[in-house]
Design brief:
The chain is mainly beta. Helix content is 1%, strand content 40%. It has a five-stranded antiparallel β-sheet with strand order 1-2-3-4-5, with no helix packed on it.
């Protein structure tokens, strides 16, 4: 009930899942005024004046009524003209048809006396004043129900697994070293505008396999893959850098990925490919070499002006790159300084020969 005044009750009943209502307008029966029940849904002693068809939320009545009680009778009264109306006087009940009202939206409840239909005094009836009453709208003030629409956002993910090969070549003639899982470490790092990503793995089964990279939208993504240099002095570590480019495209609502590789430093010191099966720029195989020891003999000469050079007259030392003395030798009379054979396991070694002062 959303309106209760002057013996009028407007009660709305929800009759549809969409919030549609039926509006009923009740009016206190002048002959049952002892049953007046203001502020309640009780309609005992009330007359059903109007009942609508279902009205959708946010709309007003636009059709004829299912129930329309007319005419009505006022209370019994005697007019100022002396005429007695023991059964009251009949008055019509209908829609409000005045020009400034929307047709079928409003009903006009007439004044029946004793504050029924309007709060005017009964003297208005006695003087024969007509047209007094209350306008009651027939509308559904509920908020219109809108069926929610659910959209499924299908965020597709496409994955790419970076994988490279690992080869260890031992240049020794015997006691060759084999490649073991976990011997070498490798790192992948995102570059450019690609979302930050870094991972370090070791070789397994001759492969260098990183975790899957996931992509949810089209774009170009780049990564750099390198070998982490170790500390084994007998191994030549591969300083090759591989750039992996992942191109993700959306086609017919699905993501597709293509992967390309380019590399630098994929050749040895002599400019020869470390992996002859591929051009150096496309190399994705990391090659390590166990360096074979090399024996080398160093002979130097000593000259002396003004007299003949004597055996063991001068002393000479051979030092490594850290300044450590490797060998100490003296000259022969013919000027030869003969050092013992040296075995090298490094690709580069800086040696220094110094004559000691007497």
């Amino acid at each position: 009930m959303d309106a209760e005044r002057a013996g009028i009750k407007r009660i709305k009943e929800i009759v549809g899942e969409d919030g549609s209502v039926v509006v009923r307008v009740y009016l206190l029966d002048p002959k049952q005024q002892n049953k007046r029940s203001d502020g309640t849904l009780n309609t005992d002693g009330y007359m059903l004046l109007a009942e609508t068809k279902p009205i959708k939320p946010g709309e007003a009545n636009t059709r004829e009524l299912v129930v329309k009680k007319s005419p009505l009778n006022t209370i019994a009264f005697t007019g100022t003209d002396g005429v007695n109306h023991p059964n009251g006087k009949t008055v019509p009940f209908d829609f409000q048809w005045a020009a400034n009202y929307t047709p079928y939206k409003t009903v006009f409840v007439p004044f029946l006396g004793d504050n029924i239909g309007h709060l005017s005094p009964n003297s208005q009836l006695e003087r024969g004043v007509g047209g007094i009453g209350t306008n009651v709208d027939l509308l559904n003030s509920l908020t219109p129900y809108k069926q929610p629409i659910y959209y499924y956002d299908k965020t597709e993910t496409i994955k790419v697994k970076p994988e490279f090969t690992k080869v260890l070549s031992d240049l020794n003639a015997e006691n060759k070293r084999s490649l073991n899982d976990g011997d070498f470490s490798f790192k992948i790092t995102s570059t450019g505008d690609t979302a930050s990503h870094t991972e370090t793995v070791t070789n397994q089964g001759g492969k260098v396999t990183f975790g899957e990279l996931s992509f949810t939208k089209a774009g170009t993504y780049t990564y750099k893959v390198t070998e982490v240099a170790g500390s084994d002095a007998d191994v030549d570590y591969d300083d090759m850098e591989v750039t992996m480019t992942v191109t993700v495209k959306e086609e017919n609502g699905s993501l597709n990925a293509s992967v390309s590789y380019s590399s630098v430093k994929g050749e040895d010191e002599n400019g020869q490919p470390k992996n002859p099966s591929l051009p150096p720029s496309e190399d994705k195989e990391f090659n390590n070499f166990v360096v074979a020891p090399v024996k080398t003999k160093f002979d130097f000469s000593k000259a002396l002006a003004g007299r003949k050079l004597q055996d063991d007259e001068f002393t000479f030392v051979l030092k490594d790159e850290s300044g450590n003395v490797i060998q100490t030798k003296k000259n022969k009379a013919n000027g030869v300084i003969a050092f013992d054979d040296l075995t090298f396991t490094k690709l580069k070694l800086v040696l220094t020969i110094t004559q000691l002062k007497k």
